[in-house]
Amino acid sequence: MTGVPESLPDWLTAASRITVLTGAGISTDSGIPDYRGPKGVWTRDPDAEKLVTLSYYLADPDIRRRSWLMRRDLQVADPQPNAGHAALVDLERQGRLRALVTQNIDGLHQAAGSDPDRVLEIHGTVNEVRCTSCGDRTPMSAALDRVEAGEPDPACRVCGGILKSATIYFGEMLEERVVEAAVAAATDCDVFLTVGTSLTVHPAAGLVDLAVGSGARVVVVNAEPTPYDDVADLVVDEPIGTALPRLIALA
Q1: Which of 85, 109, 123, 202 is catalytic?
Q2: Residues 222 and 135: beta-carbon distance below 8 Å
Q3: Using an 8 Å Cβ cutoff, are 114 and 89 in contact?
Q4: According to CATH, what is the number of the domain 1-32+81-123+174-251?
Q5: 202 among known catalytic residues
Q6: Could you give phi then psi for residue 71, rounded to 5 degrees?
Q7: What whole-number percentage of the chain has pLDDT above 90?
Q8: Which fold has domain 34-78+124-167?
Q9: What per-residue confidence (pLDDT) applies to 150?
Q10: Which of 175, 216, 218, 223 is least surrounded by Cβ atoms within 10 Å, i.e. has the fewest?
Q11: Cβ count near 1 (within 10 Å)
Q12: Mean pLDDT of the chain
């Protein structure tokens, strides 16, 4: 196991523009399971991936009903930000955060106090729903109220179309403006810090290549090995909830 060193290298303590990429691993301490880890949701139940695959979702009302119940259960659990999220707020308050790119859809970075203008949600947000026909967006809470009231698959109240969470499902295109902002942040930083991401999903993983190509140093904080450990300047595989606050405090 590679822990946080007692003293950090000068290139990290002197960094003034740090871009962060976070994945599911930063939210596991908040009670939100990851997806691709050894005990991840899709590792244990590959069929669960169908709940967030657009073709299945649009074609199968039962998939939609299961998806709404999953969203309802997540809301009931009421996950809260943890020490890892708070550490990144501290980094921002130091004036050194270039941007916070996240693969997560849970909104916990903003709930912890991160500036929403610095958070780039490349996979969307679970806090809103979107109509797949007309594009109308409404709060997730309103849709879940309808589910609780007996609508197992609520339809759009504007056009009657199929509603889905405002997250990027498999088979959907990412929002171009968000991807462009993430690319700009990766190519305009002196340190690229990845936290709790397997770095196997593109285009997010490719941001590491862009950062390296632009001369940035790379720090990987993740419980499991990643494909980018060999190119990283520092790898930390201690639990994120303790390692990240210590890393930020020392930096």
Answers
A1: 123
A2: no
A3: yes
A4: 3.40.50.1220
A5: no
A6: -65, -40
A7: 82
A8: SIR2/SIRT2 'Small Domain' (3.30.1600)
A9: 95
A10: 175
A11: 6
A12: 92
